[in-house]
Amino acid sequence: MLARAGGGFGMLAFASMLEAAKNPFSPKVPMQVGGKAKSIIWIFTNGGPSQVDTWDYKPELAKRDGQTLEGFDPKTGFFPGSVGGLMKSPFGFKQYGASGTWCSDLFPKTAMHVDKMCFIHSCWTGSNNHSPALFMMNTGATRMGYPCVGSWVNYGLGSESDSLPSFVVMSDPLNRGLPKGSAANWGAGFLPSVYQGTWLKPSGAPIDNLAVPASLTPQRQRAQLDLLAKLNRQSLGGSAIESELNARIESFELAYRMQTSAPEAFDVQGEPEHIQKLYGVNEKHCGHFAKQCLTARRMVERGVRFIQIYSGGMENQQSWDGHKDILGNHRGFANESDQPVAALISDLEQRGLLDQTLIVWGGEFGRLPIAQKGAQPGRDHNPHAFTVWMCGGGVKGGYHHGETDEIGFKAAIDKVSVHDLHATILAAAGLDHERLTFKFQGLDQRLTGVENPKVVKAVFA
Amino acid sequence: MTRGLFVSLSLLSLTTSLSAAPAKVKFNRDVRPILSDKCFFCHGPDPKKREADMRLDERNAAVEAKAFVPGKAEVSEMIQRILTTDADDHMPPAKSKLSDLSTDEIAILKQWINEGAEYEAHWAFIPLKPEATKDQSIDKIVSAGLAERGLKLQPEATPETLIRRLSFDLTGLPPTPEEVTAFVTEHQFDPASSLQHLVTRLLASPHYGERMAVDWLDVARYADSYGFQVDREREVWPWRDWVVKAFNDNLPYDKFVTWQLAGDLLPNATDEQVLATAFNRLHQQENEGGSVEEEYRVEYIADRVQTVATAFLGLTFECSRCHDHKYDPITQKDYYGLFSMLQNIDEAGLYSFFTPSPPTPAMMLMDQSAKDKMASLKAKVAALEKPKTTTLPDLSRDELAHFTFDELKGNKLADSLHAAPPPQPKKDAKDKGPPDPAAVLKGENKLVPGKIGNAIQFTGDDAVDTPLGNFQRHEPFSVSLWMQTPDVKDRAVVFHRSQAWTDAASRGYELLIEEGKLKWSLIHFWPGNAISIRTKETIPLKQWLQVIVTYDGSSRADGLKIFVDGQQAAVDVIKDNLTKTIAGGGHDNISLGERMRDRGFKGGLIDDFRVFGRDMTTKTNAELQKARAELFAFQDAQKELMVMKELPQPKKAYVLTRGEYDKRGEEVGPTAPASLTPFPKGAPKNRLGYAQWLTAPDHPLMARVTVNRLWQSLFGRGLVKTTEDFGSQGERPLYPELLDYLSMKFIQSGWDVKVLIKEIVLSQVYRQNSFADAKTMTDDPENQWLARGPRFRLPAEMIRDNALAAAGLIKLTMGGPPVHAYEMSEAFKPVTPGAGDTVYRRSLYSSWRRTSPPPAMVAFDAPRRAVCISRRERTDSPLQALILLNGVQYVEAARVLGEKLHLETKGDLPKMIESGFLRCLSRKPDVKEMQICTQLYQEQLAHFKAAPKEAEELLKTGNAKRDASVPMPEAAAAAVLAQALMNHDACVVKR
């Protein structure tokens, strides 16, 4: 009935004919070749995981355990009154894979994939406070209100899904809150609002207005839409605005498809048992995160461009923000995410999707190699160094980029700023960060700011 | 090509529009855009970015630097550099990432040089000329432009379309079926006068002001919350109501601007004029703990600068925050010159976390009876106030507590006047027992030998807490202590009653050392609502001083005194404006030596601390105290709105290096860019003078920018598309004569907005049919040529108001506090929707929280109102369709409309369909439409008869009660019919 409007125009054709009724999600051709990633999944380890307890092995730190860190500025972290001595990692480290990558015992399952993972050990940021550091990591600016990476990617690449939102965000479903600054972390800033992340509500219907009113069954709505299209065409059929009208009709059609597709995409219970088991969907310790990772894979299959999953809720003990008891804190959040993340890598690989999907794992900053004093010692914020790893999307496996100093306090060799990291992520998706611009306030604004950040080319295979 | 696909599309349409080679090149039209895009970044106004000392934005400089030889393109360096393939010489260079000039662009530059390389001032900066209106009209100008393209105006739209278009454009609401019928009838007899009558009626409607206000709220970044991370709610809606009233009163636009910018500076300013200045305070504000106060104060002022520049000048001033503008003649000094005028108020960079008070300066919102009451209470106080006889402090009476600090028991320091209560068995865990009069020593503070026995030596990080001191401002009180400071304190808290410094706006009272001097203050909200005095002399170091501070209960600075070693200290009055309570915010007791996120009395000593419930220098007058208590309580109960209130002494302003708050460079004074038009002679160098400069008849931008925004509001696109940028990077209008004509008329009419709108909407250009032939529509999709009438999807507010109005649900109550629509239950920070008919208020009144705005409004492209926005994006997304199909507001409106149709026609289907068309599309259906709708209704009816449960469910949506006289299946089928009509293109698209 609703034959794709007026003689098979694709969305692109609409867009080119109609600036006024443009479809902002028309896929756009990537601006540079090189990047392979069609989709990006960002596991955002909220709160700032400790590099020296996870992926940045520092034997020297163990040797100097308990010593005072000379010349340390107590204002580096957030609690200048609780500065302790150097503290060795409470976790055991061993080598994995052909690359011999050192990993702590926090991630026994993910560590099996090290030869596919690419580690950037020399990341650093400018702020030691959650909100600004989160905004920096997500939007490239410390103040709220700028477009996030996901919005830029969507603005640049458009959507490949004809029935799902192209940028989705999943937050902690265990009632531990949202990352500080909440929706501003996935906002479109000055980009058109269509590019903002669609936040999937952790409970109830994940998308607003998706549910057809109880009474209006999809069949009712179908009949209504068909007649509506007919009505619309009735007065304007053959007129010059037919194509404009078709664009509107198409947006209703997409909405209609979303009503059926989205719930289906979110339904991980329909997955075969061995897949559910692989992720740990029914495991108490990681089931919630497993569902989110599995949903992410289902979305990648359905052409969703950018998926962000927050590991952890707000701050302190509700996320990787291990001010107290770094041992218990990191053990807990690693335990929630290790199996699902490992499964996500395996599963994408076995489906041949890993090459075109970039997984990014990282938070807003790192943690100090010294102890934050307390009954059970923790670690305070550290903007000077943290590790981000990537996997898939054409990055070099088993590769380690950059180094911190010998105790893991500051990035020392081949330092990578947040803007560098952003430029690299965009490059992985085939986007040139210098040319991905949007005119606002009289400037061609971009994600990576006005300094001259560099793509970390070495990470690409 | 740096801006992705969209822009390339719009460029495409532009090139089409310019496809015929121009007879003679015009600099502004043809050449400037090329130079601006490809050259000015490195060869433009900004000397810091300038390469090879070559500037191309000024003819003399360019000729001198041999950029070109007028008349000889072939030997001109510029052309050679563009054409060369030598990578070292080629322009633009590869590192600029700019694409090469097109063949057409090169041809234009050559022709221009050959024709003499004449420059023109940037079109928008050329003053308006009175001749602009001579023998001109909208229709003449546009018709002439169209004739050049071999086109002409479309015929007039049908009267049904016209009344619908006009009703939305002038009131934001659809016409009622009765209004449509009446107008169509009148139109048959006398089209011209019927239109006159219609426009006059609509402009007189109170809903005109509401419709106009919506656009202005975007510009003014109006929101019902402070924004940033914490985003607490705030009451600023009285300003929103003022905007509606100002439009309805047709306040001349120059006054509209002057009042908002500088109403407080007008002679004998009225409350209304002061209230209007809240405009400058609507920017986001921060209160997150630990934020740097000055950093945010600077951000606020930067936001004011940007808003003024975007709203009134259409210039991207913000570029000049860090450096001279790269494209337009705005220097960094111009930026900070405006900055200096917008900062002269007694404000803090952070609002208070611990109290709900609006940040200062604020005005009390009082009606006449409240004002009368206030006057009478003040008179009563004045009558009781007699010249006081003051004596030296008398320490013999009314002592409330006395801490000698001689002995520490555990962490307790006894009050020598009150023995500790004997220990009693506790009833339960919550039972704290009788209050302990002792003070508590915290942290590493310690006892050391003092003036008399022992004293406390403070770490600066820990307090000593006493259990008393929650005084109100009508209560006289005094404190006596011995103290010693080891060094010159820039700032140190000696004692205070308050929760915190900036986090509570210092609410309470405090004795500080500031720049080595003693400062004694009572504070409602620092800095704008407080009384404060400071000694003229610094206090001596490393010696014991007896300090006595007193307060007489007057709420005035002259009621504060400081005595040092028995002598009244000479003081400067720092603040003398305390009009609200000093109580509240928490921490209701006096603490010594430390305060939350403030600087403590590090290394300082305090001994023999005594608190008195009296001004120890004068007699207490119980009657006066009672009268004051009454007056102050009345003041405390009055609501406040943050506004502008000029400081008598302007703050110093500096160029901030790279725009950073802590990198002060050269000092700058108030100025406006003289390159636009000189500052009016004799005008004050402040906001009022700036308003006079803006509204001077020869100002090149103010009227153009305003007219353009209004045009955008009616046509969906400004004559200049970049409403926010009239500089050289903005779009040059296709009809500059039209913009100038309207701007000049606007000024000549005395800035009469209604007159301007009337002229536009009565023009043939506006009244055209909004459809043109396929070629025109394809070549000019944005309707830049004006070869047809306006047609575009209604803005967010009208989408919702239209559905409510069509269903007859809309509640047209005007003004008042914001309300929560249904969709707020789905907002990011969900809020329970309002009860009863508050969910049917116009969208203008929906609560606007910046971190959680109404989701349906945002889906339809309403901006978040974080910063000034003068142009909305217009997108189509499936989320919009989902809202229209499934959103509670829309499903309810459909079922209510369905029921109404059924009731009023007694279920006669053809009549139902006809009435539905009139309500939703303002016209009658044709035969085919009647057939389609009949089919739809009958199919649905059959279905709902078979599935009555589904009908019942559908009819439950929303707050509105159902009329049981319509059977459920019929009501449900009618709802589906109504929903289809409400989603008809002609219902949601202005045609």
List its traits.
heterodimer; A: 461 residues; alpha/beta; Alkaline Phosphatase, subunit A; 8-stranded mixed sheet; two-stranded antiparallel ribbon; 11 helices; 30% helix; 16% strand; globular; disordered N terminus; B: 991 residues; alpha+beta; Jelly Rolls; 17-stranded antiparallel sheet; 23 strands; 37% helix
Give structural notes.
The complex is a heterodimer of chains A (461) and B (991). By secondary structure, chain A is an alpha/beta fold. Chain A has one domain (31-209, 272-459): Alkaline Phosphatase, subunit A (3-Layer(aba) Sandwich). Chain A is built from eleven helices and 18 strands. Chain A has helices at 5-8, 11-17, 59-63, 130-139, 149-157, 218-236, 242-266, 273-279, 287-301, 326-350, 418-428; strands spanning 39-45, 83-86, 93-96, 101-104, 117-123, 167-170, 198-200, 306-311, 357-362, 366-367, 370-372, 381-382, 386-391, 399-401, 403-404, 411-413, 437-440, 443-446. In chain A, strand 3 (93-96) and strand 4 form a beta hairpin. In chain A, helix 6 (218-236) packs antiparallel against helix 7 and helix 9 (287-301) runs parallel beside helix 10. The longest helix of chain A has 25 residues, at 242-266. The N and C termini of chain A lie far apart (48 Å). The model of chain A is unreliable at 1-22 (pLDDT under 50). Chain B is α+β, with helices and mostly antiparallel strands and 991 residues long. Among the domains of chain B are: 17-120; 252-363 and 640-699, no CATH class; 399-423 and 433-636, Jelly Rolls (Sandwich), CATH 2.60.120.200; 888-990, no CATH class. Chain B is 37% helix and 12% strand. Chain B has a 17-stranded antiparallel sheet that branches. In chain B, strands 1-19 form a two-stranded antiparallel ribbon. In chain B, strand 2 (399-409) and strand 3 (412-415) form a beta hairpin. In chain B, helix 8 (159-171) crosses helix 9, helix 17 (368-384) runs antiparallel to helix 18 and helix 20 (702-715) packs across helix 21 (736-748). Chain B is globular and about 100 Å long. The two termini of chain B are 34 Å apart. Mean pLDDT of chain B is 92; it is low at 1-21. The chains are: A alpha/beta (461), B alpha+beta (991).
